[in-house]
Amino acid sequence: MTEQATKATDTSSGAAADNSANNQNTEEANNAGTGTDAGTEARAVAKAKEEPEGGQERKTDVDIETEWREFSDKYISEKINDVELISKADIKSFTPVARELGLNTAQASKLVSFVQDVNRKVLEKQIDEFNGKLDKYEADLRADKDFSGADGKKFDENLKLSIVGMKKLLGDNAEAIKLMENSELGSHPAVVKGFLKIGLMEKEGATLGANTGINNRSNMSVEQRLEEYHNEELKKNGYI
Fold this sequence. Notes:
The chain is mostly helical. 76% of the residues lie in helices and 2% in strands.
């Protein structure tokens, strides 16, 4: 009886050990399968990031270099009043920075567009301020009786004479003339009235020559006429 009980106990212990081993093997197999699934999923995610969307072929290094070269060389900026919102030189300087930051050309283009929008707003504000000053200068000249006359009817005539005076003073200096015409300096009331004096001298000299056949004063240089005008003003005010 004791020997049979001992054999039964040994048999039971062996079966339990076998079951434990089987369970351990099953658990290890399950864990191994789970690990395989996790690794496969990670590789799939990494691959998806590398490959472009829409089933397109992956870009080669040559394709990428070509895109960046075109981005840098062929970029055409929007202009306002012949002023580029962002220059080609700025694009060339920005390109290596964008690449260093890990941007692609599409992302870089979006950033450039954003900068253009900012520059557009700044430029438009400057244009509005410039036009506002010109409007104020014109209003001041129209209100100036010495320039426009008591009834304002001399404004157009004197404005034309001031332009004549400007061109007479600046001569063939096209750059200086362009500066005066395109900047607020040339429209400032004090400058316009200064040019008017020269224009009136030019008109007076031409009239004198037409009436008397003598054109001595019109042959005088602008500097000589200004000096003469200055001396006349000094005499008129009793300084000489």
